[in-house]
């Protein structure tokens, strides 16, 4: 699916995901703890982005492979690994057609990554395919009710997708996980919050619109009136969820998941 892959690569190459991914470090560390990653295990991180989970696995002495579509993000992740003296095998590849053999990994992870695959069923099947018997899949996925799920829904409301794509936050629901992984999978999930901090709600909105690829792509496809409307809706959402007064203290709700296929 080269056209879809090209579009995905362009989306995540837009803006500066490095500054955003840095704020998700805690989710990566917690996921490795919840999955009880062991030293020496074969660990695959899918849609690794800036490498948060891959580096967390390497810090725990796992044998880590990390895959992403976007080469610049992979290069940034590799620089981080080198700076920490960590060994990770970074590879460019598609979550919907992982370039690794069947049943190769004890632990397969993805933090806010694989949920953005266009073909969700195919991506889920790939996660299962590469997991060893008795292994597990550990995911962190945005919920529909949290800021990220609602923000992504705003993008879709203002710029409807060309196809009848299911929302990315489907991965952040038990119903969606059952649909994707089947009734026979053992699924454990718990809701967690990351906390987003900015000097003010409006400063967050300005920074978000200048750094987060999916929002920037949506804004770029709208006329001036459409851009103002999307920014106004995003601003209202941020103010609604802000738990502080003058500064921004906003929960980013996500589902932390461990699946035994």
UniProtKB/TrEMBL annotation:
Example GO biological process: methylation
Key word Transferase present: yes
Gene Ontology molecular-function annotations: methyltransferase activity
Keywords: Methyltransferase, Transferase
Superkingdom of origin organism: Bacteria
Keyword Methyltransferase: yes
Positions of the Methyltransferase type domain: 44-138
Pfam families named among the record's database cross-references: Methyltransf_11
InterPro entries linked to this entry: Methyltransf_11 (IPR013216), SAM-dependent_MTases_sf (IPR029063)
The protein's name: Class I SAM-dependent methyltransferase
């Amino acid at each position: 699916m080269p056209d879809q892959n090209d579009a995905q690569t362009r989306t995540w190459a837009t803006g500066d995901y490095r500054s955003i991914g840095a704020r998700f470090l805690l989710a990566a560390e917690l996921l490795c703890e919840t999955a009880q990653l062991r030293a020496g295990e074969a660990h695959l991180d899918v849609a690794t982005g800036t490498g948060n989970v891959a580096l967390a696995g390497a810090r725990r002495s796992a044998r880590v492979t990390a895959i992403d579509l976007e080469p610049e993000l992979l290069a940034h992740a590799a620089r981080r690994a080198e700076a920490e003296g960590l060994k990770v095998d970074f590879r460019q590849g598609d979550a919907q057609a992982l370039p690794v053999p069947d049943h190769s990994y004890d632990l397969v992870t993805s933090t806010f990554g694989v949920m953005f695959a266009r073909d969700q069923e195919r991506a889920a099947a790939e996660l299962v395919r590469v997991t060893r018997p008795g292994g597990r899949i550990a995911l962190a996925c945005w919920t529909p009710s949290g800021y990220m799920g609602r923000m992504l829904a705003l993008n879709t409301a203002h710029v409807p997708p060309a196809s009848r794509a299911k929302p990315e936050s489907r991965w952040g629901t038990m119903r969606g996980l059952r649909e994707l992984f089947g009734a026979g999978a053992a699924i454990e999930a718990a809701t967690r919050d990351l906390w987003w901090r900015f000097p003010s709600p409006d400063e967050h909105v300005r920074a978000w619109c200048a750094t987060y690829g999916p929002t920037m792509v949506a804004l770029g496809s709208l006329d001036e009136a459409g851009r103002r409307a999307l920014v106004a809706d995003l601003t209202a959402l941020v103010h609604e969820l802000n738990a502080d007064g003058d500064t921004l203290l906003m929960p980013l709700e996500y589902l932390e998941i461990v699946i035994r296929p």
